[in-house]
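Hi L.,

You mentioned the student needs an example of a multi-chain input paired with its predicted structure. This one should do, with 336 residues in total across all chains.
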Amino acid sequence: MISGRCAACKYLRRRCPSDCIFSSYFPSSNPQRFACVHRIHGACNVAKMLQQLPAAHLRAEAANSLYYEAQCRTQDPVYGCVGIISSLHQQIHSVESQLAKTKAEIAVLESLALEPAQIQENGVEASFYNFSPEQDKAAGHFNHSTNISYHFM
Amino acid sequence: MASSSSYNSPCAACKFLRRKCMPGCIFAPYFPPEEPQKFANVHKIFGASNVTKLLNELLPHQREDAVNSLAYEAEARVRDPVYGCVGAISFLQRQVHRLQKELEAANADLIRYACNEVPTSLPAPPGASSIQSMVPRQRPVEYNRRMGNEGGYYQVPGMPMPYNLPWNDNPSGDTNGGGGGNM
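Structure written out for the whole complex:
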């Protein structure tokens, strides 16, 4: 029946038998789907690949993935799907690098958050803010030295 | 790659096809006789005439990469007749998605630390409140701009939505014959 032909049989200009291997996966409503797959894989190869699968749902998945691969190859005739795989690997590498960097930053902030507590326990911070007159003089002498060093700079 | 046809040794393609390997054979540079399986796979999945057409449409310097990618896809399809290398794409997409979620969580932790890093015993520096209010907005925007997408899956410009296999976490995969993935 000519009116009931699937997209594959229409494309191949042949009668569509009742047990046509293509009809379930290449409906006449989407002629571009079969055209794309046919251009890359060829009708015979697609038929063989579908026939070797035992179950209808596996054939459906295979038809879908073949169509996806054919589209990738049509858009990128040099690399096809392999280009996408390569890009995904690069993306994974990039995100892993950012993740490692972020975790390192977190580790630094964690260690900084601990430091003030440790300083307070040792009493170093308290002495730092409480100068004795002798220390002030030493600080002044030090500043004088510093001024000399700046003068030379 | 040396042309095997120049040494009277047919290339793997001509051996497989049982024909004379002529000088200028389009397959000879890319299918050496030492790798018979490479052409066997490519022929099984794509067919010799389709490969010839594909190679003829490319510039000579592009053909080696094209053959290698075809060989990769063919081998993947031989190993996995249902999904071929699309299975690998789906797996990698999920991996990217998982890592992006992990990065988002780590960025959120970093923002929390950044907001809390000024100890309560010391006075906050001038403008700290304005900085702290900016920080939660900055990193997610910067991250999305860097990544170039807003979802979890890789999207090829002009290509259909990322391929979703039925055993993905996202149940939007289409398993009937009318379309593939989210197409």
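You could point out the following to them. The radius of gyration of chain B is 26 Å. Chain B touches chain A through 65 residues (CB under 8 Å).

Best wishes,
N.
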